[in-house]
Amino acid sequence: MKTEIVNFINDLPAEVHSYNLSLEEGLYIFVDLHENGNLIGLEKEVYQKSKKEGEINKFLKNCLDIQTNIKPVSPQKIFNPNKKIFNASCSPFAICFKKKILEKNIIIGTNIIKEIGQYFNAASKYTTNEIHIKRLEKFRKFCLENLLNILTTLEEYKNLKSDFGINVFLKSVELSDYHTVYEKYLVNNVFNKEEYSKEIGRIVYGIADSLSSFNDKKMFLKHKTAPFEFNYRLTREDAKSIWQFFQLRNRVLPNPLPIFIDKRELNGKVIAILKEDSKIRFSEIIKNLFNNQENNKDLGNYYLLFFQRGELVDFDFVPVFKYELKDMSIVEIFPLGGKMETKVKNIFGFERDIANRIFNNQLITETKAGGIWLKYFGDLEYNPQYITDNTFNQLLKYRKAFYDYIYKSRRESIQDFMFHDIMIKGILDDIRVDEYKDRKHSREYSIKEKLNIWFSLFNYFNNNSKSNTDMVNKTETLLKRIKQIVESDNESLQTDEEFAFASGQLIRYLLGQSEAGDRTHALLEPFLQKIEPNMYKLAIARTFDMYKHAIVFYKGNTRYSFDIIMSQVMGFKPDTTNMKLLLPLILAGYFSETIFKKPE
User: How many CB atoms lie within 10 A of CB 63?
Assistant: First the structure.
């Protein structure tokens, strides 16, 4: 992985490192000093982000350029490690800190002057140039003798919010000087600890701080049983490149990130796309690359990196990425106003319209900042407001398989049994928690949505061509068949499938006779729990007995559709001994349009 990251960074244009940089909120001060360290003059401005962010002025642009060349490598590599007051800069020409941290330490009696001295003592290690040394000494003298006194006289400081930063820069220092000193600081601080470094052939190798952390106080994080203490070392330049990669990842790079190895020009195209839209998703990047490929060939030969909360949780090689999907479409068998009738053209359409829906839209959610949270890795918090307990467990159980299917084109990762397991439990869960309010079922849309997905893709993940079942066609055929039975005196139920579908219609009709407030789909659950056919029919008979007062009987020789189906279902003897095998068709009958007409 380290080699691929280093090559990726080295191939990028230099200007990429300035993409999407944003200035920190706070007070910015440039001090113009005499050679003896006395103040000649100062320039100042408070920067506060607004909802309508526009271009910043020349003064603040200069501050932003400096900010990128004084940032600490990590919180552990600052110049003021004791009290951590001056923890926002690592430069001999700048000193930055939070107002609240400074004032807190003043209140508790911290020797601020001593801490300033510690800061500049550390900064002096990176000033070997004589001109730089003179500038450091001049700035050090000013900060030790006058900085605090001058700050307290400024109205901008007095009115500054406590969590804003204070950034003091030495004027008349070229950006190139900031950069030169910062490069020295970076190269000497990208290793975790110098004691882990080793010189080989006059080249120093060490452990990259961005990739490995060692905490001697946390013994359970140590690899006590490993046959070696360290798995790899890098040069300082390579460690710096990896640090730059992690800086870009936080600001610019998409998540997941593809790093192409054979066609490195594609890496450049990825960055070019990000320059146009820094918030663009991985799916849109792939779509853009695919549409610009010759002959729309499949992409591939890239390493996929996925980060979760700053940690690398997946790194894998993808030889071929199949963007387009064939023969995948959703048919709206159970009407939802035409909202689901669609052809799924590509893998990210599958992720959005199929995978996310079957997990109650909890596989992908929007963040408060307007971004996208892909929940393929990491801990998740169960919230019954958005997802049922069984579906939550299914999400945890199968999300990695969906991730491999979508992002790595591993079509074998989603198996037929997995898909059916997810759909059955998800639908039954929705039935169980359904509520009836304002003449509407709270879960009916979700149930029909999942039924449409389940039946439309019933065989999509099945590699056994001998056992294909067309549930879309079967549902439509069964509905026509049951209508035919009620319209003819000579037709009757012939198969277990017809029996199951007709019984689903019958149960929906019977439960609909209830005048009580609790008319939820949860009333269907006791029927679905029956395994033995006779017990299943007995449950129907008992339900009829409960609501028979609301059902109009036929007169003379005229039989209504209910009478016909009731007698046919109760008199039919199915071949199966396990009603669970007929569950899909029972649900199909229950949620299809009703065949029953009110008696005239």
Answer: 22
Q: Which of 35-39, 366-370, 453-457 has the highest mean pLDDT?
A: 453-457
CB 194 within 8 A of CB 206: yes
Residue ranges of domains in the chain? 7-189, 253-316, 329-465, 470-591
Q: How far is CA 449 from CA 353, 388, 392, 475, in A?
A: 10, 16, 18, 15
What's the mean pLDDT when you consider all of the chain? 87
> What token pair was written down for 216?
């001697």
Amino acid code (one letter) for 375: K
pTM: 0.82
Omega cis (within 30) before 72:
no
Q: How far apart are CA 526 and CA 432, in angstroms?
A: 10
The answer on pLDDT for 599 being more than 60 is no
Q: Please give the backbone phi and psi of residue 567, each rounded to the nearest 5 degrees, phi first.
A: -70, -35
Bridge-partner residues for 169, per DSSP?
A: 30, 94
Q: What is the pLDDT of residues 268-278, one digit of tens each?
A: 888 888 777 76
Supply 291's token pair.
């549409």
Q: Which two tokens stand for residue 394?
A: 């299914």
Per-residue 3-state assignment (H helix, E strand, C coil) for 28-73 = EEEEEECCCCCEEEEEEEEECCCCCCCCCCHHHHHHHHHHCCCCCC
